[in-house]
Specification:
By secondary structure, this protein is mostly helical. The chain has twelve helices and two strands; from the N terminus they run ααααααββαααααα. It starts with a helix and ends in an 8-residue tail after the last helix.
Length: about 325
């Protein structure tokens, strides 16, 4: 796949432009994102992501288009599963809905930078040391097994290593000060719970990247496709979080489905020198596993719709978790 510099510059420009529009034109002031607003933005990001896949297929061929789509589906599916973790983090640090978008925005910026580094490192390793493909494959199989046996595990932000490290080195305030990550108390500069939530989100994304980056390398070895499928899936993470407010528990079988996907792509990597699974077959298997897990979840829940019951209500998944008493608030 011959990708010129102009394509890289163009993609990065589009990503930065959309982030700027999102932050400075639509979310300059702190406000509670409604399900309707989040739904519109979710549709915009998905359309943009799928549209780019069409451009890839048109410019570079159908096989590369299918590889991008497979990577996009994997990353998007993992993002839905990760939304619950973000909701737990916001509930644990008592972050109001109107400030959650700011945390997620900078979390996405950090995620894009971190994943670009991971992708570059992974591409170099796979190119220079072919045996690392077996390392990645084994890692995915182990991750799939751990995801399966811990599919009902609830994360505990209080035990987050990054938070513990920050608390030992940075003075922390128990009070929020608007959208500020730092504030001044008694003449001393201290961090607010908003910064703690951001650190927890960034740490969670590092853990997520360990799953998603090798998984996408299993369906394509092209760094351009790995990066763009990751980027366009992550860009819609904030709006998807708010759009799925109150519906997170409906996807009870998604973790099981994701463990199946990771096991499939891990085995695919381990068998790469014996049999190379066609990308169309890989895409079909991935979509089928995710589709079955989602349909089974909705049938178990007794609902056939993914739409919120009231699209004009404020979307705040963390509020529901807090009311249910599933996490302890830090005050």
């Amino acid at each position: 796949m011959d990708v010129s510099l102009i394509w890289w510059v163009g993609v990065v420009g589009v990503i930065l432009g959309m982030l700027a529009i999102d932050l400075f034109f639509f979310h300059r002031e702190a406000h509670e994102v409604t399900s309707r607003e989040a739904g519109i933005w979710t549709a915009v990001w998905i359309t943009l992501g799928l549209g780019f896949g069409g451009i890839v297929a048109w410019r570079f061929g159908l096989d590369f288009g299918a590889e991008y789509l497979a990577g996009y589906v994997i990353e998007k599916s993992l993002a839905v599963d990760n939304i619950f973790v973000f909701a737990v983090i916001f509930a644990a640090f008592s972050i109001p809905a109107r400030y959650q978008h700011r945390v997620l925005f900078w979390g996405v910026v950090g995620a894009l930078i971190l994943r670009a580094v991971f992708i570059a490192a992974g591409a170099v390793l796979l190119e220079r040391f072919h045996w690392t493909i077996y390392l990645f494959g084994g890692l995915l199989v182990i991750t799939a097994w751990r995801m399966w046996i811990h599919r009902d595990h609830k994360p505990d932000p209080a035990n987050n290593p990054a938070i513990k490290w920050m608390q030992r080195r940075i003075p922390m305030s128990s009070e929020l000060d608007g959208q500020k990550f730092f504030t001044v108390q008694n003449g001393k500069r201290v961090a607010t719970p908003l910064l703690a939530a951001l650190v927890a989100v960034e740490f969670a994304d590092v853990v997520f990247a360990v799953d998603s980056i090798p998984a996408i390398f299993a369906v394509t070895s092209e760094p351009f496709l790995v990066f763009t499928s990751n980027a366009f899936a992550i860009l819609g993470l904030r709006s998807m979080y708010f759009f799925l407010a109150g519906m997170i528990e409906r996807f009870r079988y998604l973790s099981a489905g994701l463990s199946g996907v990771l096991a499939f792509v891990g085995i695919k990597m381990l068998l790469i020198d014996v049999y190379k699974v066609p990308i169309v077959v890989s895409l079909g298997v991935i979509v089928s596993i995710i589709g079955v897990s989602v349909i089974a979840s909705l049938r178990q829940d007794g609902s056939a719709s993914l739409l919120p019951e009231a699209t004009d209500q404020t979307a705040d998944p963390s509020a529901g978790l807090a009311e249910a008493g599933r996490v302890d608030h830090r005050r």
